[in-house]
Amino acid sequence: MKIRRLSEIDLARIAPLEADEKRYRLRLLKAGRPPHTYNPFRASLGDILNLQPEMFESGGDYTPWSQISADIGKRANTDDERKFNLAVAEALYDFGVEQDVRSYRKLIAPWAVGYGQSVMYWWNLYTVIEKQPCFVFVDPRISNPLTRLARKFALSMMHERIRVPDPDFANARLLVAQFGKSGEGKRTIKMFEETELFGFDALNEMIDETYQIWIEVLEERAEEARKKSAGTTPLGF
Predict the structure, then answer these.
(1) Number of domains forming the structure of the chain
(2) Mean pLDDT across the chain
(3) Are residues 25 and 39 in the same domain?
(4) What is the mean pLDDT of residues 9-16?
(5) For the chain, what is the largest distance between any 2 Cα atoms, rounded to a whole number of angstroms?
(6) Residue 151: partners with Cβ closer than 8 Å, 6 or more residues away
């Protein structure tokens, strides 16, 4: 049986919960592809956060919003996907321009969670905000966004993968960006950070339990599908 990957946001929302609540939440996860993705936004992230060319120390000017908007429009598969991606991208872009941010490349390995899966609560860059290096994880969802407990999980994962192994970034700020609704399809941005975090062992235990239960849920679904295809009813005929 193929193990369907849990997204970073779904894993963060579910992993810190008690086992019974994990099972309940995992059973609610829908099969199939979502109606839209934020891949067009992610593909333009370097321009949105003013990624600097490695050959220059001071870098160049911000990419015009008109160019970013056009690029996202070309990558979107539907009009709805274009609108959702543009709303998030514009809110983050406006924040970046207001803060005069600059970003720089930094390769950070994914976190292998076992079962052939891995997660990344970061991009391969850091952003300087108010003269301090910051790593920002974007939660673009309107429905079922990260809760406070889920943000703590995501930020803990970032801490263990970014700060702990690299003394140069031991004091970097770790942020979760979330987006509320505004007028005319606009989104507002809010940054969150936590001081109390989960430890390394606790994170691995939460992830392992979540995936063990997830496999059981997937096996339940596979068994139900087999019964339906065989025409078997709950009474056995």
Answers:
(1) 2
(2) 91
(3) no
(4) 97
(5) 73
(6) 12, 139, 176, 192, 194
Task: Please count the CA atoms within 13 angstroms of the CA of 25 that sit on its side-chain side.
Answer: 18
Instruction: Verify that 134 and 220 share a domain, yes or no.
Output: yes
Residues 6+ apart with CB under 8 A from 90: 65, 69, 186, 187
**pLDDT tens sequence across 52-74:** 987 555 556 889 999 999 999 99
| 102-154 tens-digit pLDDT | 999 999 999 999 888 999 999 999 999 999 999 999 999 888 899 999 999 99
Assess if residue 48 is contained within a domain: yes
The burial class, CB within 10 Å (0-12 / 13-18 / 19+), for 129 is buried
Contact 210, 26 (CB under 8 A): yes
Tokens of 211: 């995936």
Q: Are 19 and 206 in contact (CB under 8 A)?
A: no
Residue 218 CB coordination number (10 Å): 17
Radius of gyration of the chain (CA): 20
Q: What six digits make up the tokens of 225? A: 């599908």
Q: Which residue has the higher pLDDT, 56 or 204?
A: 204
Q: For 90, how many CA atoms within 13 A lie in the half-sphere containing its CB?
A: 18
- Residue 44 placed within a domain: yes
Residue-wise pLDDT for 82-104, tens only, equals: 999 999 999 999 999 999 999 99
Mean pLDDT, rounded, for 2-9: 90
Range of the structural domain that residue 13 is part of: 1-32+106-227
| DSSP line for 49-62 | TTBPPTT-SS--PP
